[in-house]
Design brief:
single chain; 289 residues; mainly beta; Immunoglobulin-like; Jelly Rolls; 7-stranded antiparallel beta sheet; 4-stranded antiparallel beta sheet; 51% strand; Bacterial spore germination immunoglobulin-like domain-containing protein; signal
């Protein structure tokens, strides 16, 4: 019997059992379902790959060992419609199958656009020229945020006195908000980065001491071309304090693409001026979705 005909019979007769195994792997990470390849830090990826594992047997249930052409399609619906992405694997890209198991990095031949994963998707597979197996398997359980290019990427970071062994930076400051300092009064705890218009996560940590005591606040300020465009108050203490420590994060979702400077700030209120000692661990970090 011609091998192609044999595989047509196999897929039509045993397709359900094959798909049930694939479906289990899609739903259970311990069964080596699809895994998502993260982009290198600092990159904003527009495409991704999926590590995918399947299993094939012959009509008698014996695992197959062969190198076979396969076609993988992604659809926006469980039936009908046109594939939104297709990858054909033949010739030098044909899929090796060993003892029934095969592994492919979907998207390594035809890159998968990241933006496809903002909606439910269904995977269809055909083997050795046969018609596509049915039913398609849904990939909607994979969260969009887990797709490469949509995980937060570190754009920039600054830290100061992480081991708390440095000499405090001292300033006499009037009432109001001021940028947290690092090694000297000109060394601001700030990061300037280019963003792509997606959500931006900023985290800041600061510690400082005041004499005389003041009401204190911590905040993140956002500047563009030297002008403050937005910011957020992360909290504070309405009572007079001689010391303050704060740590917090905020997601900025309204920033258009461009270059921004993110600054850690501290506010001092309740008197004309106070002597501030910036000391111990300080950090500001900016991430982009």
């Amino acid at each position: 019997m011609n091998r192609t005909v044999t595989f047509r019979t196999l897929l039509l007769a045993n397709g359900l059992s094959i798909l049930l195994l694939v479906a289990a792997m899609l739903a259970t990470s311990t069964l080596a379902g699809p895994t998502w390849q993260a982009a290198p830090a600092g990159n904003t990826a527009t495409t991704t790959t999926i590590n995918y594992q399947g299993h094939l047997t012959n009509p008698g249930g014996t695992p197959v060992s062969a190198t076979l052409p396969m076609t993988f399609n992604l659809y926006a619906a469980p039936t009908g419609g046109t594939a939104v992405w297709t990858e054909q694997r033949s010739g030098s890209n044909a899929v090796p199958v060993s003892n029934g198991l095969f592994n492919v990095a979907l998207g390594s031949v035809t890159p998968i656009p990241v933006n496809l994963f903002g909606a439910p998707l269904w995977l269809g597979i055909s083997v050795n020229g046969d018609a596509e197996m049915s039913p398609r398997e849904q990939l909607a359980s994979v969260p969009y945020a887990a797709v490469a290019g949509n995980v937060p990427q570190l754009l920039g970071e600054k830290r100061c006195d992480q081991n708390e062994t440095g000499t405090p930076t001292t300033e006499v400051l009037p009432e109001g908000f001021h940028v947290v300092k690092c090694s000297n009064a000109q060394d601001a705890m700030s990061v300037t980065v280019a963003t792509n218009g997606g959500p931006v996560v900023v985290h800041m940590t600061a510690r400082y001491y005041m004499s005389p005591a003041r009401q204190t606040y911590c905040s993140i300020a956002v500047f563009r071309n030297g002008t403050r465009v937005t910011g957020v108050n992360l909290g504070g203490n309405t009572l007079n304090n001689t010391g303050q420590g704060c740590s917090g994060s905020f997601v900025f979702t309204e920033l258009p693409p461009g270059t921004y400077t993110f600054k850690s700030e501290a506010g001092f209120f309740g008197g004309a001026e106070t002597t501030v000692n910036w000391k111990h661990g300080r950090q500001i970090a900016v991430f982009q979705f």
